[in-house]
Design brief:
This protein is mainly alpha-helical. It has one domain. The protein contains five helices and no strands.
């Protein structure tokens, strides 16, 4: 449930950046559907390919953590895409918040910030990204 622990933008740790761009990981059109047209997708495309591949792996880890925290059935073919979509929405919100607060581009923020922290910032600001309410127990 760490994925849902509130985190204010001013409490996010900034790490050193990875350096200059040497080419996109993949063309934007080849990104998973959930990333196309997102700020996260644009930021990934601006990072060097090796760094973007690492960050994308962390983004998928956030989606996996959300699927588990939200109690999604991983055997359901719709669970992983839904969790990835939620992760992208939250990370986008965190990117916007921190880019404004730090005066950096989204790519710089993504390069210097853990994607889980970006999601947590986004979920702190947007109630729609918070965990679903617990299911009520069935009456017997």
């Amino acid at each position: 449930m760490r994925v849902y622990r509130p985190l204010r933008a001013d409490r996010v740790e900034e790490r050193p950046g990875g350096g200059a761009s040497s080419g996109a990981l993949v063309r934007a059109i080849a990104l998973p559907r959930q990333l196309r047209g997102s700020l996260l997708g644009e930021a990934l495309a601006a990072l060097p390919a090796e760094r973007a591949a690492d960050v994308l792996g962390y983004v998928l880890g956030v989606a996996n953590a959300l699927a588990v925290a939200d109690g999604l059935s991983l055997s359901d073919s719709d669970s992983v895409p839904r969790a990835l979509e939620k992760a992208v929405r939250g990370i986008d919100a965190g990117l916007r918040e921190l880019a404004g607060a730090r005066g950096q581009t989204a790519a710089e923020v993504l390069d210097r910030t853990v994607p889980l922290d970006l999601f947590r910032v986004g979920a702190t600001r947007d109630p729609a990204l918070r965990p679903p309410p617990p299911a009520e127990p069935a009456e017997s």
